[in-house]
Design brief:
Helices cover 59% and strands 13% of the residues. By secondary structure, the protein is α/β, with parallel strands linked by helices. Strand 8 (479-483), helix 13 and strand 9 (503-507) form a beta-alpha-beta unit.
């Protein structure tokens, strides 16, 4: 049973122009559909030949009868084509064969009568040319269906036998009969083979079309799923970071004022646990960014020595807690400054060193760096992290850098983790045109190697460290408006900044903030972004559009959304600066320093 993929199927205007969704029956119908004028011209030429041979009545019968039949036939074909969607192909071919048989008889009967009446050589030659033309049509029809071929060939064969029986002696008829049978057999075999070939080709073609359509549909579904996943991750990131801002903010405030060593230790555990949760969340977001092609490597002059020193200093307390040695070894050839994405390079090493410390129970972890100069301005830097841990089984090594793959698959899961760290390392290294691999021996330890091609750089001109100044020197007594629909976030901001002798006022919504800003001047606005009713961006636009005491007041975006563009996105939208949640006091003070410095510089410029 034939099927169709579309609600409407329209026949092509001429033979040979077909839709890829047509069935073999519909292809046959298309092949027979020709303008009536073309048939009328062919009929007129044949009728003219009969007329010139002295048979005017037969010529008129052929032209009128065949042309009328052709007109009716085209209407019938059009009707059948309109109803061909889902039609039984076998029955359809049978109907076409009967129609072809009738058309052949209507076209050849007057010529046969002419031959039998005139019995001249000219009549026989005209009849032979007509049959040869129909034989060519039959050969073409053989590719569509054997039934249609025989509908053309059978009446012609009978007519030839009739002419032979009338005009030739019996012995001559018997002599010609084997040749005629061979000719028919050849055409029959050719018809069957051509029909089978065309049918197989059409089936394969339609299967290819169906597979491509399925692939396109799967690709679209995958793209939609990817977009849905990205939106889900962005939403979940925001929803997790918002309460974590309160948890970590309050824990850090308590830790700062806590004098009891036991309580301080408990608060440290709380803070470290919260930061660990955020690290897992960041890993998941990085995987989503890499999959979407939105994670870019931004190279800038980087102090490689300083980055490594800070990395080791960060992990040293953790190593000491576990009774391990953490060593940094750099060869003299290691360049001091390179062009690299410092954030991503630190992330790679952070994951490798963190893993080494996690899986090593005794001994040491060594960070080893050496470089090979490849030219006047380029070096190949190899960063290796070697541990004295348990090593990795050989069968686990090929899957080690796959997502969610973990060396510790036991029920105990002593070491935890989401199984994303090494997968992210591999993908970041590949984005930096480098390579990563591991050398390991069970019971001895493992060494992870990262090799990166890095351009050499010069140290930038030294400038006063504004951030350091912000943390060490007292702030001017700024008047700040904090805007957030979450009361816990407002409490964290108030207590963080009030301790620095800053005046903090709160607004729980955008309209409430606009009312406060219309009444008196502020030095700074700290605004959440995702708020019901009026977003932080809407608040900023209204503030900048309406004249008032705070039309030019710097506004810092405070947001838990880190999945849709980061700091630069908010700067492009018109915010003076940006700080991500959970809020780190140092990051917030840096943002405040940059925002107030930029505002002061703008006011100092001559009009």
């Amino acid at each position: 049973m034939a099927t169709a993929e579309t609600d409407e199927v329209r026949a092509p205007p001429v033979a040979g122009v077909v839709d890829v969704n047509l069935t073999t029956y519909q292809l046959a119908l298309s092949a027979f559909r020709l303008p009536v004028s073309v048939h009328a011209l062919a009929n007129a030429l044949t009728a003219a030949g009969i007329l010139l041979l002295g048979h005017p009545m037969l010529a008129a019968c052929l032209f009128v009868g065949a042309t009328a039949f052709d007109a009716a036939m085209q209407r019938i074909l059009g009707h059948w084509f309109a109803e061909s969607v889902g039609a039984d192909e076998t029955a359809g071919h049978r109907r076409l064969a009967l129609l072809s048989l009738a058309r052949t008889l209507a076209y050849t009967a007057p010529t046969l009568a002419m031959v039998l009446a005139g019995r001249g050589v000219a009549e026989l030659m005209l009849f032979g040319l007509q049959l040869a033309t129909l034989l060519m049509v039959a050969g073409g029809a053989s590719a569509l269906s054997p039934k249609i071929f025989w509908a053309f060939a059978a009446p012609m064969a009978i007519e030839v036998l009739v002419v032979a029986a009338v005009l030739l002696p019996p012995i001559a008829v018997l002599a010609l009969l084997p040749a005629a049978l061979v000719l028919l057999a050849v055409f029959a075999v050719s018809s069957s083979g051509a029909s089978t070939t065309i049918s197989n080709w059409h089936r394969a073609f339609m299967q290819s079309v169906a597979e491509r359509a399925a692939a396109d549909a799967a690709r679209e579904a995958a793209a939609e799923a990817s977009q849905a996943r990205s939106a889900f991750l962005a939403t979940m990131s925001h929803e997790i970071r918002t309460p974590m801002n309160g948890v970590l903010g309050m824990a850090r405030l308590l830790r700062r004022d806590e004098a009891n060593p036991g309580q301080a230790e408990r608060l440290d555990v709380l803070i470290q646990s919260g930061e660990h949760l955020l690290a897992i969340l960041n890993d998941v977001l990085d995987v989503a960014r890499i999959d979407a092609g939105r994670l870019e490597i931004v190279a800038a002059p980087t102090d490689l020595h300083g980055l490594l020193d800070r990395l080791v200093a960060f992990w040293t307390p953790r190593a000491q807690e576990r009774g391990l040695e953490l060593n940094l070894r750099m060869t003299p050839e290691t360049p001091a400054w390179v062009m690299a994405d410092a954030v991503r390079l630190r992330q790679i090493l952070f994951n490798l060193v963190g893993n080494a410390l996690k899986f090593t129970d005794s001994g040491s972890v060594d960070v080893i760096v050496h470089a090979t100069r490849r030219g006047p301005g380029e070096a190949r830097v190899r960063l290796s992290v070697r541990d004295t841990g348990p090593g990795i089984a050989e069968e686990q090594v090929p899957r080690l850098f796959d997502r969610f793959s973990q060396a510790d698959r036991s029920d105990e899961r002593r070491h935890g983790g989401a199984g994303l760290g090494l997968a992210i390392v591999r993908q970041l290294v590949e984005l930096m045109d480098g390579r990563v691999w591991v050398e390991t021996e069970l019971g001895t330890g493992s060494t992870f190697h990262v090799e990166l091609p890095l351009d050499l750089a010069s140290a930038p001109a030294e400038e006063p460290d504004a951030d350091e100044h912000l943390l060490s020197a007292p702030f001017p007594r700024l008047r700040i408006l904090a805007v957030d629909d979450n009361p816990v976030n407002l409490m964290v901001l108030d207590q963080l900044l009030s301790s620095l002798d800053l005046v903090v006022e709160s607004a729980a919504s955008g309209p409430e903030a606009l009312a406060a800003l219309a009444g008196s001047a502020y030095d700074l606005v700290l605004s959440d972004i995702q708020m019901p009713g009026m977003t932080g961006l809407d608040l900023l636009r209204r503030l900048r559009a309406a004249p008032g005491p705070n039309q030019a007041t710097p506004v810092i975006a405070l947001t838990a959304d880190v999945a849709s563009g980061g700091r630069q996105r908010y700067l492009d939208q018109g915010f003076t600066d940006h700080c991500a949640k959970p809020i780190e006091l140092a990051d917030l003070l840096e943002a405040i320093g940059r925002a107030t410095s930029a505002s002061a510089a703008a006011l100092a410029e001559p009009a």
